[in-house]
């Protein structure tokens, strides 16, 4: 799969003053399957906004976002978020009083799918790829931050998405765990042939990525 952003414009409008805050003006960028991309840029420049546009949580004004030859607006939001895009956040967003297994299978149930034996197998496979297969029946509250983030990555991949968006995935981790999570994201992009896009302030994580983009002056630069 290829994501192409073409001549994209986006501004937030202040509902009280009706003033516009421009975030993107005539932006172009491409993302290819099998690669990990880092998105850097100063705080408030638009990294999370880019993710929201890619997940159709925000609607752009002009331009186009394409998944291969299809406009993002041709997909239903449900299809986009269940089959194409999945997200990982800085705070893991796991349910602490449930086990790792229960957290992973819950993502299948939320998608209104019946949990099958193959889902259990997939959960174990993903945990093994992330080196935490021994935590399958552990309560999330008993895991370290680095382990929780690896569980949240496994959960994000349960429905086999083609694109993984990770917003500051190492923001709450120490250096050693950050690098481990960064390396795992890189491996997953290569081994599973998915697009992994990581918004980060951490230059060591950006260095792990195959390609680097920086958001600056309403543009996305690099690639
Ligand atoms: N719903 C909104 N309405 C108006 N302005 C918003 C809204 N959401 C974000 N903004 C503003 O848009 C700008 C970009 O926000 P965004 O969250 O994309 O930045 P970011 O690069 O992810 O920042 P950080 O690195 O601090 O997470 C910021 O100035 C923010 O205050």
From TrEMBL:
Keyword terms, alphabetized: ATP-binding, Nucleotide-binding
Segment forming the signal sequence: none
Superkingdom of source: Bacteria
Pfam families per the UniProt record, alphabetical: ABC_tran
ABC transporter domain residues: 3-221
Keyword flag Membrane: no
Protein name in UniProt: ATP-binding cassette domain-containing protein
Species in which this protein is naturally found: Alloscardovia venturai
